[in-house]
Amino acid sequence: MPETGLTIDELAARAGVTVRTVRFYSARGLLPPPAIGARRVGRYGPGHLSRLTLIGELRRQGLTLAAIERYLQQLPDDISAHDLAIHRALVASWLPEGVEEIGRDMLERRAGRPLADTDLDRLAAMNVLERTADPDSFRVDPGTLHLGIRLLDVPVPVEAILAAREVMLEHARAAVREIGRIFRDEVRRPERVSATRSLSAQMQPLVVQALVTAFQRALREEVRVWPEHRPGPRPS
What we know:
The protein is mainly α. The chain is built from ten helices and five strands; from the N terminus they run H-H-E-E-H-H-H-E-H-H-E-E-H-H-H.
């Protein structure tokens, strides 16, 4: 039976860091120890990958290792890879968009698997990567890449992903416009304008967190009723 999980070399390749970096973070207690498999080889899971990605975002934000340790200590011990990814998305909302251009070989190393053209189409539809003029070069969001890879095997057509993305964008724009209207109405007085401009950057993470939390709750409620809305047989 083949062993599950990633070796330290595979984990480093998927996260876009060096093995030395993984060992350093492990020694600092920023990464939990791996499961020990056959021949005493450590095996790492999705939680390790999500945590490495989160640490990378915190480092790009300029946090020191001590500050990152404090941040991670506040997280629940049993936090899932999914929730770590949400933390990463919230941290990334404080930063300018970070996209790197990589070749197909590096992309497949990060993905941990070969990628067919249909896989690339699905990742592009999820806005995880963007094609360039060079067919073997892609602009990639490193933080969301491994999440997109996990969704490749979900049996949802590209058309459905694009439709869902358009719905989310439409409602996100509407929410932002309405939030903006509320705050503009509150700060029309001249003495508040300068204070509001300086506050806007500080507000962004709070607004994003509120939107993500509200979306999570609504999605959980909706998923509970999905089985009740299975389409009936089509009329002949």
